[in-house]
């Protein structure tokens, strides 16, 4: 590596031309350089390799033994460099053998991956996808280390330094079973606090959320009777009990035959759901195609859109 740092890589192109042409004038014409420039570069090559490389002969120049040893590996290395510098090939989803790793919470799987997968499977039938649990604290390192290709989380939780795009704005609604005795009319704050709540605690075992903090500021308290780690467990639980929950509205899209929803009697902040990715994948053709598929599934953009 020390020798490589000292060598102008353009000299290797000159060496290749000289070894093929064995004539300074013809090598200069091939390189679109002047003959004196090629002569100067030959001098630098001789110094770099500590060998004459080319010697005067009766019909041009004769390569030394060292030069002949260099020719095949030199041409192989130049061919690899040429391939390395070619533009990235287009992504062909129909024939691509590719695996994507996505990180998402279970409610996000329902809101984003469920509408995404049918079109993606049809367009890229040889692809595979692994879905990992989204942990905001680990997201940056997972994306940086290629453990995850694309993540989904609330924009406010997105680690700094990552590429991101907001997918939609989500808000929480109060949900309970359709014949719930305390939810036959719009609940006021007193009735809200009298209900028995399920809360989702992704880190496990928590009974308190920002809602409880907001209630405490008003001198109120609700009854939290159950804490679970996942959202998807909650709708069927509500349908067969008198427990209620504050849930993302998109999660309830297909559960409203058994449940009904109300706006909560206190302000609940909306949040923006974003997809996030690392800069190293931003221009990758396959990754750009995948991001376009997400946008197409959620917003009806053309599936060839690039994001």
What do you see in this structure?
This is DNA-binding transcriptional regulator, LysR family. Residues 7-64 form the HTH lysR-type domain. InterPro entries: LysR-type_TF, LysR_HTH_N, LysR_subst-bd, WH-like_DNA-bd_sf, WH_DNA-bd_sf. Keywords: DNA-binding, Transcription, Transcription regulation. It contains eleven helices and twelve strands. The chain is rod-shaped, with a radius of gyration of 32 Å. It folds into three domains: 2-84, Winged helix-like DNA-binding domain superfamily/Winged helix DNA-binding domain (Arc Repressor Mutant, subunit A); 99-170 and 272-299, 3-Layer(aba) Sandwich (D-Maltodextrin-Binding Protein, domain 2), CATH 3.40.190; 172-269, D-Maltodextrin-Binding Protein, domain 2 (3-Layer(aba) Sandwich), CATH 3.40.190. Residues 302-307 have low confidence and may be disordered. Helix 6 crosses helix 11 (285-299). It is of the alpha/beta class and 307 residues long. A five-stranded mixed sheet has the order 4-3-5-12-6, with helices on both faces. A five-stranded mixed sheet has the order 9-8-10-7-11. Strands 1-2 form a two-stranded antiparallel ribbon. 40% of the residues lie in helices and 22% in strands.
């Amino acid at each position: 590596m020390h020798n490589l740092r000292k060598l102008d890589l353009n000299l290797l192109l000159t060496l290749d031309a000289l070894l093929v042409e064995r004539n300074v004038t013809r090598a200069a014409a091939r390189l679109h350089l002047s003959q004196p420039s090629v002569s100067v570069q030959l001098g630098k090559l001789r110094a770099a390799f500590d060998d004459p490389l080319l010697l005067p002969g009766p019909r041009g120049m004769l390569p030394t033994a060292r030069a002949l040893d260099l020719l095949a590996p030199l041409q192989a290395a130049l061919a690899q460099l040429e391939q390395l510098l070619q533009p990235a090939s287009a992504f062909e989803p129909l024939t691509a053998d590719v695996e994507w790793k996505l990180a998402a919470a279970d409610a996000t799987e329902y809101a984003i991956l469920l509408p995404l997968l049918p079109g993606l499977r049809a367009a890229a039938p040889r692809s595979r996808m692994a879905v990992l649990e989204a942990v905001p604290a680990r997201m940056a390192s997972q994306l940086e280390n290629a453990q995850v290709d694309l993540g989904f989380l609330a924009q406010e939780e997105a680690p700094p330094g990552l590429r991101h795009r907001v997918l939609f704005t989500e808000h929480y609604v109060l949900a309970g079973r359709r014949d719930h005795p305390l939810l036959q009319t719009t609940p006021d704050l007193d009735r809200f606090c009298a209900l028995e709540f399920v809360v989702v605690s992704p880190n496990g075992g928590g009974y308190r959320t920002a809602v409880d903090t907001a209630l405490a500021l008003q001198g109120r308290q609700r009854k939290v009777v159950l804490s679970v780690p996942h959202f998807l467990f909650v709708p069927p639980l509500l349908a067969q009990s008198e427990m209620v929950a504050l849930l993302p509205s998109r999660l309830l899209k297909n559960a409203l035959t058994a449940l009904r929803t109300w706006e909560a009697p206190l302000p609940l902040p909306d949040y923006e759901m974003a997809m996030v990715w690392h800069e190293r994948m931003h221009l990758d053709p396959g990754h750009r195609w995948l991001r376009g598929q997400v946008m197409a599934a959620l917003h009806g953009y053309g599936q060839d859109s690039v994001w």
